[in-house]
Amino acid sequence: MTILVTGGAGFIGANFIHDWLARSDEAVVNLDRMTYAGHPGNLSALSGDPRHRFIKGDIRDGEQIDTILREHRPRAIVHFAAESHVDRSIAGPEAFVFTNVVGTFNLLEAARAYHGTLADEPAAGFRFLHVSTDEVYGALQADDPPFTEASIVAPNSPYSASKAGSDHLVRAYFHTYGLPVLTSNCTNNYGPRQFPEKFIPVVIERALAFEPVPIYADGKNVRDWIHVADHCAALRLILERGEPGTVYNVSAECERRNIDLATAICDCVDTLAPDPQGRIRRTLLTRVADRPGHDFRYAMSAARLRETLGWRPERSFADGLRQTVAWYLDNRQWVAEAQARLACALAETA
Ligand code: NAD
Ligand code: TDX
Hints:
Strand content: 15-25%
Largest sheet: 7 strands, parallel
CATH topology of the domain at 2-195 and 225-254 and 297-316: Rossmann fold
Cofactor: NAD(+)
Oligomer: single chain
Protein name: dTDP-glucose 4,6-dehydratase
Enzyme class: lyase
Number of helices: 12
Helix content: 40-55%
Shape: globular
GO molecular function, one term: dTDP-glucose 4,6-dehydratase activity
Bound molecules: nicotinamide-adenine-dinucleotide, thymidine-5'-diphospho-beta-D-xylose
């Protein structure tokens, strides 16, 4: 048996594939365009593993997806591929619409045609898992209760609007065509292999280099954090035991203010990589201009996932953060390659 993963050279997709192959002999076909965010080093440990087949391709190309489904006949699709960085969506929204909305539409269309070709039993077992985000629900104020699956969808950035658009298409393919879809909406992930444009790796890298650590506005914005391995475990469970047509929110219910998180990371870098001159990294935190339309707070309840599928996160935030900082300190070549890819992408958009 085989599953098709899209976006498996990126942060969460690569962690998912590594976890999957560590737990199962089932093969993975990995379709990834290798944008700046797709990192070759995320897959290098799998070279020579016959269970992993990498295909450089684009979800904006519907015919290519048709061919892959015909040739590899997966029992499931796990869809990660996306443009994922909010700041880039503000600077240039178009790519987000084409990959996140049109790309997901292409994948759904191809899956619908493919599902129709399956005989009764394999067709019943087929699953399309769409990996999405808490940002589709918009922003909370300090005293609001956390988002649930019943919260109103109210995206505020081009990124979250494009993800909400894709979520709506996925829902429509269940109700209209009976495609057995599942949607997961997860909070902010952190962990190994996260691209160094996202907040936690930005803080680690700037702190390590004794450069100013950029904190948008007053740093009081709140994010709800989950270790990527806990997210991947939730996705495996949803894929195997989730009810088609259902949305599952994934959250470790771990809210932190950006300023507090950045301070904790600086202290952790001080511990793991002490400065011979005794400089203290938290002094590097520097207030910079705010992100336009910056969502104030995300927080999400995982009650449905807990109560219906028995999922629990396994890692404490303190342990997960320390292990993440250690991973960045131990993987300097990976970081250098990611920064080179980022510099190329920034030069192209300048
Ligand atoms: P990422 O940017 O690290 O990786 C995205 C991957 O998709 C890259 O490998 C890239 O090459 C690939 N890709 C981009 N456009 C493509 C295209 N047109 N065709 C094929 N491949 C393409 O993203 P991530 O942080 O790993 O996020 C993965 C998914 O999880 C996204 O759908 C994102 O919306 C969702 N998500 C992310 C978070 C988070 O905190 N990072 C939280 C919740 C949900
Ligand atoms: O340099 C920075 N300084 C800063 O203060 C950066 C890059 C971010 N921030 C703030 C903005 C946010 O409040 O930190 C917070 C986290 O920012 P990001 O890492 O850009 O994440 P966010 O915008 O919350 O979106 C992330 O979580 C949900 C992912 O990038 C999305 O793909 C996911 O869907």
